[in-house]
Design a protein that fits this description.
single chain, mainly alpha, two-stranded antiparallel ribbon, 2 strands, elongated
Amino acid sequence: MTLKPQQNPAPVRPRRRAGGAPAAPVLAASPALPLVLRYWGPPVAWCAAILIFSGDLGSSRKTLGLFYWLMSWFPQLTPQEVEAWHAWFRKLGHLSAYAVLYLLFFRAAHLHLGLAPGRTCLVALVLTLGVAGVDETRQSLHPARSGTPADVGRDMLGALMAAIVIPGLWRPGRGGRLGQG
């Protein structure tokens, strides 16, 4: 499926002010707008969440207090063990957040743009890499955070793990939609 350019622009409806004077024209709602929001809204919202947590809100200092509270249910753990588990959960958070982001980009690119699976995978990986780069750059500029190329690598590892899972969900006999079999 390829997208064709719209032949006619959205119709312009004249508006009238109170008293009958013409007002500025208003474009009628485009039928493509809901599709754009349906497909690209989730990855954009997920990107916003990633970027919100890449500031002080998601810093190790802020999340450690919550993690200590959660781990207080396991009193046999020493503070050093809690901090080690905290570091592992933060790394797992990077992997899973970017795996989900990749899946959302893959879904949007496939369903909205109608790309073939290989090209869709490449588009989703490039978009995910772009978000990871912006995220780590933002973290490197924040005094409470540290963004590194290694973190971009961890983010992309999560995306690549999701890219490996996609073929198992792919059902070409059912219109190429994910998860339908």
